[in-house]
Amino acid sequence: MKLGGRPACACLLLALAVGQNALAGGLQISPVNLTLSATQNADGIWLSNEGTAPLNAQVRVFNWQQSGNADRLSTSQGLVISPPIVTLPAGERQLVRVIRTTPATNQVEQAYRLFIDELPPAKVQKNTLQFVMRYSVPVFLQPVGQAENTAKLKWALVQTDGKTFIDNAASNDTAQPVGVDLYLDTTVNGNAVGLVHLGYAQGKLYGDAMALRQLGFHLPEKAQPPFYLNDIAQVTVDYNVQQQTLALTAPLSLLDLKTTQLNQSEMASPKAANAFGALLNYDLYGDSGKNSNFNTFSEFRAFNSAGVLSSTQLTRYSTEQNNNQSFSRLDTSWRSSFPDKMLAVTLGDTLTSSLSWSRQTRIAGVKIGTDFGLNPYMPTTPLPAFLGSATLPSSVELYVNGVKYYNGEVPAGSFQLNTLPNITGAGNAQVMMTDALGRTSVQNFSFYNDQLLLREGLTDWSLELGVVRKNYGYSSFDYASEPALSGTWRRGFSNSLTAGGHMEASDSLVNGGVSSDWIPWSQSGTISTALAASSDAGENGYLYGLGYRWSGGRFNFSSSVTATSGDYHDVATRYGAPPPALSGSAVVGYNFGVGGNLSLSYLQFRYPDQSAIRYANASWFKSITENVSLSASFNQNIDNTRDRSVYLMLTVSTSNSLTAGATVQRTGDKMGYQLNASQSPPSEGGVGWNVAASQQSSQQTGQGEVGYLGRYGRVYTGFRSIPDNNYGYAGATGSLVMMGGGVFAAREINNGFAVVSTDGIPDVPVKLQHNLVGNSDSSGLLLVTPLNSYQNNLISIDPMNLPANMRIRSVSLNATPADRSGTLVNFDIKPVRAAQVNLVDTKGKAIAEGSPVRLMSGIGQNSVVGFDGLTYFDALELHNQLRVTTENGICVAEFDYPENQKSVPTIGPIVCR
Q1: Do domains 386-449 and 835-911 have the same CATH topology?
Q2: Where in the sequence is the signal peptide annotated (predicted)?
Q3: DSSP class of residue 595?
Q4: What kind of fold does domain 269-323+680-831 have according to CATH?
Q5: What tens digit of pLDDT does each residue of 509-566 get?
Q6: Cβ contact 711:774 at 8 Å
């Protein structure tokens, strides 16, 4: 058997040539070559059906040797394929594993060839040409001691001094020119990003802020480019010079996974699947000094498909006299959510809704209203639109403030592009259109957007009825005797006007008002207004509010004032302080670039029958280098010249989460100094610590703490010294989960989570968004957290170390938990009696490929005959009967399955009679 000497090829096999029509096969594979290191047990190839009809595919493996200019293939002894024959529905894909049968040796590299064939159907339409695909894929097994990245000739298209040329380099990538520009086809955690503009110098890839945001990294405003990808802690960089691709793997904590809607249509939120379970979050803290204290905070949750029951508690114990111990129930509630209607109902302890001018009140009762968080894929704020037309079919690209945010295709005719991202403030956008003839046109437009507005036609409402909670945090069941009613309503009347109202009532009190947020014209800024009135047992009062805000580029400004007159009351007034008689603020900020960021603010408060409180503040921040920053602040009480504070702080940070700082401050007539250093634990777990020392006047304080963040929670201990008291402390936070037949310890869980089942198979690696989170336990279970509620969270397994006789239905699934609840993710993995069966007719000739086969034994199973008369089943019994449909009719083959098989044997040849 011979093949040409090409490294990999895809060939068209002609099944029938009797007519004018042609049907093209849809089999696609990825990747197109495999290399297994000495420590690697298996790898895989994805087969996908890009056609419109189901197809059958066969994978065979052969030893590959080259003699002269010819390839010599023989039966493989070192690799097995699982499964060797697959049926792919249209649009589906299947992972096929390539598994070692023996460990790596110290000998030379071994080479194999995979034949991946799209099998022709048993019957072909008349007068039809049927084309099917064959892929020939090289597989290399590296011996023990060989480096995984051997020297190979590589090339890249690079740009230097405005010129493009081909650069040849050996295996050492540092041989490339310094400072070249690259445009790399990039993936981040397996998600395609597209072409990203990066630089390459001294063996490292680097990019500016635009590039890193395109890659999805969190980027602080103070960060200064260039950013070297190879130097980012916990980020794996796989740069393929030959193919000009880049694969990045990063922890979830470094990536911005916020949901962003960029296309014109809204994405439907996936349906959440809730399991039955219970959860306990705990936070324990104790200290010992002059007195000993022990405090606990706990949250109990029980959940099922109907909703979530939640209860929080606070316990305090102290050896201090007259303060021995106390227990306080905080909140207990049941919440049911209805994502299709974006509606939530809460029974029990809750907070009333409010607008910018009103106040929330804690009540026990019922709350019903809108919850946009039930569909996080739906944009709620206005998306400025661009209206245009295309004479010919065209491609459209959208740039916002110089950053590309969208590209797509539009047909001839008019179109509306509603794809601006959620950007607050003023900006400039550019739409670039290229028609089918290659002609390009560019149109510019400006916009102003405010995240506090609702998009046109969207309504947000809430209604609450209950009794007010009193002495919260100290008393568990102290409620008012009078019921209270509260309601809030907002609507986007247009993309530039959102208005709403709020009302409250209790006993003899009635309070109600309206407000609006309005953008009069493009880039004008937002004007906010509010007007309310109240009546309480004959005492009347009013509230007035006015505000303005604008931001864009380097400058931002905001101001607001709210005033009350008469006896203005709300429900909260009856159980606490009244609203301020006057509250106002003004803030202006400017980014000077190399001069840093400056912010000036003024605040004023005055409560009824009290003097006004007025403060002025000036703050400044400057990044000196990528790792060093300087900040300063000045605060002045305008009515008391002695009430003044000034501070200057220097901060130094490193790439390994180490931060150190020094602060000098003056408060009144007292000078103070502080030194601190800290290191945060890695997101995947590890040790963190912090130390601090300070002095103000003659008083000195000090603190030291060390902690460990693990898979099962966080523990910490420390020592603190303050005037007249030295004490040590320790604490722990975490959670316990009971769900899916298991009990799990984990870090504190504040969002959704999943219990992953591998069908009882232990030690299977599990990944969240392509990041390894752990292995299944002895029961085949693993708790995965945190997950985003009402969103698709990609969970996958690595099946490469599983035996070949394991049937794996899927290697990746989307998990969608509901609010603060858990969901079950079941991977169907089962040990099976699997085998390839070599079928021949009574003359010893292989049964024709494409012939349908039915397993009549046991549960029954359908398959197809591939090349060389091979078929495959994974539901075999000890004795089996096959029914084969051939061109000459139906024949039957019988055979026994050999016992104690740990792999996939080839049985036969078996005569079909």
Answers
A1: yes
A2: 1-24
A3: G
A4: Immunoglobulin-like (2.60.40)
A5: 999 999 999 999 888 899 999 999 999 988 999 999 999 999 887 899 999 999 999 9
A6: yes
